């Protein structure tokens, strides 16, 4: 482009233009071969020489020629335009709408406008478009016919990547007779074989107190009760731990614990975030659906089908019970929960941004594929073409996620009324209509009477009702008040964030992801790299979500079962077999135990996609039941515990820390389900003074507390809670001073440890017994002799210190304050917040 006077401005604009070019480079040729026209006619060459070459010389080649080819892009010859530079081709002959140079000169995109200082005249833009439509005739056309190659994806090579290979159940490794004593199930055989190959040995089993605390937090997110620990210790049978695991899986708290893990990847939140942080007033219905589904051990394939196409399952099963129908509608909230820019003025861009967020979520959460990277171009690493992205985008474009794109935009909600609720509303509506009829009849008869009274010379006024008799006016007023009361009490039927079918359509590839520059239309479908031996043809009049759900849950799908068993493994063992649980692509981590991963995936399918069966399998292995103690010699050879020679000690997540505090203090409200958000649906969660209106003052489990995007509950934000704006299947664990300060100084800990102390005092009168109860509830173990002595010393010294500030306190208050301080110290220690 022609240089402008200021070198600084020129450099900045150049960088900006080149960055824009870089984003679009690969995608320009993804859908068609870019080949120069056949030998141009004399008339076409004359058009080029008289109209196009002078335009390029005057406006472009100063910056894009042999002397100065910014970003290696030359526009002084045809090869340069077709091949492009670092950014790739800038021209696709015959397709002006897909050519970057036309987008740039037309100022079609607010971020890409060339020349940057002044738009070309309309006649020049028209000439360039016409030239590209002709096929870009050029004197050099016959010289470069074979030099232009289609940019594309090598799917066959991509299918060689381990994650795209079919799941095949491997043989269980053979071990020596001595080794087999350690093996409780096939998981151990794979782990032990790997350890032996590294000349490593697993640690001894964890003690029973450690094991029940580990298992109880793992499956319920809560500490074990003292009586549960005692029962396990007293059970000497070989099935003792199996009994514990089965009891925990039957607990309703299991769904609350593992539902939270799913909500992380479903990017659950009770507010929108972003520009318009309005309340997701009905999101809680989806949360409760997840918890109930997991407690009922709903098969995972059915779980996914309902979330992708629950409304369509209802359509093909019209006789379904209304409870299941409503459940399926609620399930599709999975597609609707993401953050949205609700004040975006460009409604088309808003819709495509929402679709992009949905695709990214579906890809990473269910398949471990970063599909969103193919919005602007073929995926740079994985075998996913830009055409694949828009094939799936067409499915979601044909789905109605939004009720309205008018600012502030509204997401779609479906009615989920019961037959009784529907009947009540219809009955009330009938009463309203009857009342309207009665009013109409009264007005008509009163008007007729008025005409007769005024005849033959009287005239009706503009408001005849003012001429009605006093009795008629009183009657009319009464009837209208009755109508108003009926309307005020008209039942509001419940709704849920969910999607439904929209207008079915295939969409065009968006050049560099922009709806302003469109390429070829792509038929709705699925990523080509994944081969399923069943063809799922999408009906012309339907979105294709049901076919997507069936394709994804087909038993031959290579990714879905692997991704899910890896997620389960990650939350039991601290790290996944694939340590990047949301990315199984070429840039993701390779599995540390690939045969074990495939054995688990195949077993998952064989067990009917039962999550609870996978929990049992993993937790009843010796691998899970190992000690977490540190062995210096082994650690030197495997410092990252890649081969699982010990159990990974880890800190509790934010929710479990808070819930555990409430549980030991006996203040936890174990009521399940329902809505705690005190802000109306679609209302702003901040008032005009930017003060949050949300109430968190509940003793319920953390999964039920509102999740407000951009403003998390303090405990959540301190202890590495998931970012609710994006899916995340792998929380990080930070160690920062504010965490310790919170545990030592927060009003929440002070309040709860006060309740904890009062409970302990009421339970046990003797100090040793009370101390043991404190340690068992908090740590799952008895206090050691040394700890008993330290407690005795503390109880002897602390009262004098406290009474110096409270000289008039009664003895009972001194005792309560002393034990509160002791409880606080115990809960603030690492042993309370870590699992061994």
From TrEMBL:
GO terms for molecular function: electron transfer activity; heme binding; metal ion binding. Residues 39-252 form the Cytochrome c domain. Keywords: Heme, Iron, Metal-binding, Signal. Pfam families: PSCyt1, PSCyt2, PSD1. InterPro entries: Cyt_c-like_dom (IPR009056), Cyt_c_Planctomycete-type (IPR011429), DUF1549 (IPR011444), DUF1553 (IPR022655). Residues 1-36 form the signal peptide. This is Planctomycete cytochrome C. The lineage of its organism: Bacteria, Pseudomonadati, Planctomycetota, Planctomycetia, Planctomycetales.
């Amino acid at each position: 482009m022609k240089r402008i006077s200021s070198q600084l401005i020129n450099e900045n604009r150049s960088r900006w233009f080149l960055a824009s070019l870089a984003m679009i480079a690969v995608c320009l040729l993804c859908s068609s071969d870019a080949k120069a026209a056949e030998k141009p006619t004399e008339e076409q060459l004359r058009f080029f020489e008289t109209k196009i070459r002078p335009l390029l010389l005057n406006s472009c080649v100063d910056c894009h020629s042999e002397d100065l080819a910014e970003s290696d892009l030359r526009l002084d010859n045809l090869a340069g335009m077709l091949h492009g530079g670092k950014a790739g081709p800038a021209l696709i002959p015959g397709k002006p709408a897909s050519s970057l140079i036309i987008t740039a000169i037309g100022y079609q995109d607010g971020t890409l406008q060339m020349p940057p200082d002044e738009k070309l005249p309309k006649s020049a833009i028209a000439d360039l478009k016409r030239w590209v439509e002709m096929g870009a005739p050029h004197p050099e056309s016959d010289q470069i016919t074979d030099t232009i190659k289609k940019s594309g994806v090598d799917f066959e090579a991509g299918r060689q990547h381990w994650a795209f290979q079919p799941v095949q159940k491997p043989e269980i490794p053979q071990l020596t007779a001595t080794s087999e004593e350690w093996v409780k199930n096939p998981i151990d055989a794979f782990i032990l074989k790997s350890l032996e190959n590294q000349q490593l040995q697993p640690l001894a089993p964890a003690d029973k107190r450690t094991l029940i605390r580990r298992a109880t937090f793992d499956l319920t997110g809560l500490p074990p009760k003292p009586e549960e620990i005692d029962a396990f210790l007293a059970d000497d049978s070989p099935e003792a731990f199996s009994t514990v695991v089965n009891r925990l899986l039957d607990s309703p708290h299991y769904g609350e614990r593992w539902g939270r893990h799913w909500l992380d990847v479903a990017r659950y939140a009770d507010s929108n975030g972003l520009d318009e942080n309005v309340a997701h007033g009905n999101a809680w219905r989806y949360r409760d659906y997840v918890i109930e589904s997991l407690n009922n051990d709903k098969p995972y394939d059915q779980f996914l089908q309902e979330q992708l196409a629950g409304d369509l399952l209802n359509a093909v099963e019209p006789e379904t019970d209304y409870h299941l129908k409503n459940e399926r509608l609620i399930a599709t909230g999975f597609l609707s929960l993401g953050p949205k820019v609700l004040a975006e003025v460009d409604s088309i861009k808003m819709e495509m941004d929402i679709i992009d967020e949905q695709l990214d979520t579906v890809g990473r959460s269910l398949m471990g594929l970063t599909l969103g990277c193919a919005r602007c171009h073929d995926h740079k690493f994985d075998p996913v073409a830009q055409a694949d992205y828009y094939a799936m985008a067409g499915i979601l474009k044909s789905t109605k996620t939004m009720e309205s794109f008018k600012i502030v935009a509204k997401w779609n909600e479906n009615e989920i009324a019961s037959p009784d609720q529907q009947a009540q509303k219809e009955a009330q509506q009938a009463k309203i209509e009857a009342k309207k009829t009665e009013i109409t009849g009264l007005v008509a008869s009163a008007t007729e009477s008025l005409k007769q009274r005024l005849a033959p010379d009287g005239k009706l006024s503009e408001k005849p009702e003012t001429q009605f008799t006093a009795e008629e006016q009183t009657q009319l007023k009464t009837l209208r008040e009755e109508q108003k009361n009926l309307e005020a009490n008209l039942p509001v039927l419940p709704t849920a964030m969910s999607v439904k079918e929209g207008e079915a359509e295939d969409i065009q590839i968006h050049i560099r992801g922009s709806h302003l520059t469109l390429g070829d239309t792509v038929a709705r479908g699925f990523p080509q790299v994944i081969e399923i031996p069943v063809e799922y043809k999408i009906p012309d009049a339907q979105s294709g979500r049901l076919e997507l759900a069936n394709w994804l849950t087909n038993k031959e799908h290579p990714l879905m079962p692997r991704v899910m068993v890896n997620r389960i493994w990650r939350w039991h063992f601290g790290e996944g077999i694939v340590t990047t649980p949301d990315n199984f692509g070429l840039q993701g981590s390779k599995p540390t135990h690939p045969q074990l991963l495939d054995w688990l995936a195949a077993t998952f399918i064989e067990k009917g996609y039962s999550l609870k069966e996978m929990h049992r399998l993993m937790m009843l292995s010796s691998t899970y039941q190992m000690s977490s103690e540190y062995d210096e010699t082994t650690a030197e050879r495997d410092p990252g515990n890649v081969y699982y020679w010990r159990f990974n000690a880890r800190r509790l997540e934010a929710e479990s820390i808070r819930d555990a505090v409430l549980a030991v203090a006996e203040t936890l409200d174990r009521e399940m389900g329902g809505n705690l958000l005190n802000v109306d649906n679609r209302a702003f969660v901040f008032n005009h003074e930017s003060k949050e209106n949300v109430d968190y003052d509940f003793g319920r489990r953390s999964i039920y507390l509102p999740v407000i995007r951009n403003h998390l509950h303090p405990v959540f934000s301190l202890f590495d809670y998931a970012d609710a704006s994006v899916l995340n299947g792998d929380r990080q664990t930070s160690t920062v001073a504010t965490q310790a300060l919170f545990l030592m100084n927060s009003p929440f800990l002070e309040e709860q440890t006060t309740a904890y102390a009062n409970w302990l005092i009421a339970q046990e009168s003797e100090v040793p017994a009370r101390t043991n109860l404190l340690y068992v509830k908090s740590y799952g173990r008895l206090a050691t002799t040394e700890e008993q002595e330290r407690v005795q010393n503390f109880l002897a010294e602390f009262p004098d210190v406290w009474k110096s500030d409270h000289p008039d306190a009664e003895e009972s208050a001194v005792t309560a304050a002393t034990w509160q301080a002791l409880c606080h110290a115990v809960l603030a220690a690492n042993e309370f917040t870590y699992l061994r």
